[in-house]
Write a structure and sequence with these properties.
The complex is a heterodimer of chains A (278) and B (166). Among the domains of chain A are: 117 residues, Beta Barrel (Thrombin, subunit H); 77 residues, Thrombin, subunit H. Chain A is built from five helices and twelve strands. In chain B, helix 1 packs parallel to helix 3, helix 4 runs antiparallel to helix 7 and helix 7 packs antiparallel against helix 8. Classes of the chains: A alpha+beta (278), B mainly alpha (166).
Chain lengths: 278, 166
């Protein structure tokens, strides 16, 4: 017994070391599972408060370019509005007597600010300043004016963390705008400007500059949102699939304002799909 | 007491420097220096080993919370802290038993300090990058990333020491 106690005392540091390393490993493994505790991540309120303060300083310095982008987007939207207004007016004139059913709105956009962002890691995350109270829920899609950003992972009261395309955990279902062939888009962890598209068989006609958009096959993103353009493609002799490198439309280094897509019929669609699988 | 206060200040300022400034540096798309290890490197020689380990864990977790990498930095930092005393015994010739100064370029001398710091920072970075890329196989890219970050971290750590010496 005395020997045992001596042994324990002698190697107590080693035991402490092993215990701490095991605790860290447990945290790492826990973190790799999809539902992560909100408490120990950057959607924790103290940490996100600090991140928000920092991002407000950064924002100040990029105000000019943000203003320019916003005014450009404003003009685009106004142009579309005027086109749609005239079209609407002409349609109303044509069938003012028939019974019309208003088209149901499918999506609602929640605007949010990026307050934390990484691009240089293998697994990158983005923190947003909107949370549960503003209607953000896990699994919602996130876009900005250029295209797809990522998917909401965890949500706290006022903050949310997003898995961007720049994280191999995210597999985005995308398709060619021209030919409609679809496949998964995955980031390989190298360059924040490029991602790889798979599952495109060798008989498909691929060209540099082809536009890649969301496929709409999942309930996260509606179809047709810009993802990027084909930058390069390669066909290995032994492989049945193309190796396609896609230049992402979103510049993840400078991202600051995003929209979260709230798909209004999400629960209904999800429930239906789940019952079909059973 | 001033020693404790000095170390608390060093802890806080290094964590803030790391999460607010250095984590946002992506030099050439590869390089993110991790200077917070200076806290472990500079702990006084007389610090009990259990305290070193606990401090390393707390330091790592603080960095993890801010950078959304739960456990990664904690793992690497605890490993580094565990190997610190053996590294001192192995590499530093002037070390006398019972002394309590904190390791630096001035107290160790440049040769011994390099022998002490280079392997420890390398072990930290290797663990960090290796664990982060656990499920991702592109070894040459990983190695390049790790070595470049290591080089930049080491140069910055030396720069801090030289500036402090003045």
């Amino acid at each position: 017994m005395k020997n045992l106690i001596n042994f324990l005392i002698k190697y107590s540091v080693v035991f402490l070391f092993i215990a701490l390393e095991l605790a860290s490993l447990a945290l790492i493994i826990e973190n790799r599972s999809y539902q992560r505790s909100v408490f120990l991540s950057s959607s924790n309120s103290f940490v996100s408060g600090l991140l928000q303060a920092v991002s407000s300083v950064e924002e100040f310095f990029s105000l000019a370019s943000i203003n320019r982008d916003l005014s450009q987007e404003n003009t685009q939207l106004r142009n579309r509005l005027s086109i749609l207004q005239t079209r609407l007016a002409s349609i109303e004139q044509e069938n003012y007597s028939s019974i019309t059913i208003p088209p149901e709105q499918e999506c609602l956009y929640i605007s949010a600010n990026v307050i934390g962002n990484t691009t240089n890691r293998v697994q990158n995350y983005i923190t947003l300043n909107k949370g549960w109270e503003e209607g953000v829920r896990p699994d919602m899609g996130v876009i900005n004016k250029d295209g797809v950003v990522g998917i909401v992972k965890t949500v706290s009261k006022h903050f949310a963390t997003v898995i961007p395309i720049l994280n191999p955990m995210l597999q985005l279902n995308v398709k060619f705008k021209r030919s409609n062939y679809s496949g998964p888009l995955v980031w390989k962890g190298e360059d924040y400007r490029y991602a790889n598209m798979g599952d495109i068989a060798r008989h498909v006609n691929v060209m540099k500059g082809d536009t890649i958009i969301t496929s709409g096959l999942t309930s996260v993103f509606p179809a047709g949102i810009m993802v990027g353009v084909v930058d390069d493609y390669r066909l290995d002799d032994s492989s049945p699939y193309f190796n396609i490198s896609v230049k992402l439309a979103v510049n993840f280094r400078t991202i600051s304002y995003v929209n979260i897509i709230r798909y209004l019929n999400y629960t209904e669609q999800k429930k239906l799909e789940d019952t079909a699988e059973e | 007491m001033p020693v404790i206060l000095q170390n608390i200040l060093r802890f806080v300022s290094l964590v803030l420097l790391q999460v607010l400034v250095l984590n946002n540096i992506h030099f050439l798309g590869y390089i993110c220096p991790y200077l917070y290890v200076l806290f472990i490197l500079s702990l006084p020689l007389g610090t009990p080993r259990w305290l070193e380990l606990i401090l390393a864990f707390v330091l790592g977790i603080s960095i993890d919370i801010f950078s959304n990498t739960m456990g990664l930095h904690a793992f690497a930092t605890v490993l580094m802290a565990f190997l610190r005393q053996p590294a001192i015994k192995l590499f530093v010739s002037l070390h006398e038993e019972g002394s309590n100064y904190s390791p630096s370029l001035r107290t160790f001398g440049i040769a011994d300090y390099l022998k002490y710091m280079l392997p420890l920072v390398l072990i930290h970075h290797a663990t960090l990058f290796g664990m982060e890329a656990f499920n991702w196989i592109d070894f040459s890219n990983l190695l390049l990333r790790m070595l470049l970050s290591w080089l930049v971290s080491v140069l910055l750590l030396l720069a801090i020491q030289v500036l402090k010496k003045e």
